[in-house]
Amino acid sequence: MTVLACDDLDCGYFQDNPCVRGVDLAVDEGQVIALLGPNGAGKTTLLETLAGLVPRIGGTVSVKGTPVKSGDARRAVRAGMVLVPDDRALFKNLTTEQNLALAIPQRTIGGLVSNRRSVAEGVAQTVSRFPALEKRLKVKAGQLSGGEQQMLAISRALLQRPNVLLIDELSMGLAPVIVESILPVLREVAASDGTAVILVEQHVRLALDVADRALVLVHGDIVIDESAASLAADPGRLEKAYLGG
Ligand SMILES: Nc1ncnc2c1ncn2[C@@H]1O[C@H](COP(=O)(O)OP(=O)(O)OP(=O)(O)O)[C@@H](O)[C@H]1O
């Protein structure tokens, strides 16, 4: 089943000069996509447009067949489009647990607003996915290591039960060994929950290893859209694309 569909999507900051053009995309349930491309290609712009943070210049976006309004981040989240931005956007002065709690919708029970039980469930789910966070629940997010912060940012996004999880620069500032420990969790979430994942990642090899499909964006155009395995087997083509060949 198609989870995310984009039709002739133009993105950018100037109406008459889109920096990402004509994106036609159908992403299936449980599919992991590596979104690759050189600096300035438009990867962040594309993710932020999908997440409703940047208004579209043209085209349509839908999640599970429901159109998503342009430039409306709240509705995008309600449609299940959840972004982990490259700066991770954590509340640095709140603890790990408090950051997780904020991601969980409050329930009204007998006229009282409470989400205590769902917070406990959310914390348990998080710790089962990222055991490294168990001892860090009472620690302020700003005092976590870079890897722990990324785990928290991803966990917070997952608690919103995304249909489409968008992750920008997963490995920003992280050692490859940390990235290697996070990527399998994304695969697992995609397989078990059917979440579609679009991952922007500078470590091309790691990204292609975890992804089903690769999109290569160069100067705002998708120049390659094919299976990650076939692209990994032919690195010369990727190099050529990066160089604008
Ligand atoms: N807020 C903005 N206003 C105007 N132009 C912008 C803005 N943000 C990005 N751009 C421009 O849009 C183009 C695409 O940038 P974007 O950050 O989306 O690329 P990217 O592929 O994510 O690059 P990187 O890998 O370096 O993060 C670039 O030319 C950039 O200068």
Automatic annotation (TrEMBL):
GO terms for molecular function: ATP binding; ATP hydrolysis activity; branched-chain amino acid transmembrane transporter activity. CDD domains: ABC_TM1139_LivF_branched. SUPFAM superfamilies: P-loop containing nucleoside triphosphate hydrolases. InterPro entries: AAA+_ATPase (IPR003593), ABC_transporter-like_ATP-bd (IPR003439), ABC_transporter-like_CS (IPR017871), BCAA_Transport_ATP-bd_LivF (IPR052156), P-loop_NTPase (IPR027417). One of its GO terms (biological process) is L-amino acid transport. Keywords: Amino-acid transport, ATP-binding, Nucleotide-binding, Transport. Residues 4-244 form the ABC transporter domain. Belongs to the ABC transporter superfamily. This is ABC transporter ATP-binding protein.
